[in-house]
Amino acid sequence: MTKCSDIKHGDVLVCADCGLELKVTKECQGCSCESQGLMCCGNPLIKKAKSY
Question: What pTM, to 2 d.p., does this model score?
Answer without folding.
Answer: 0.78
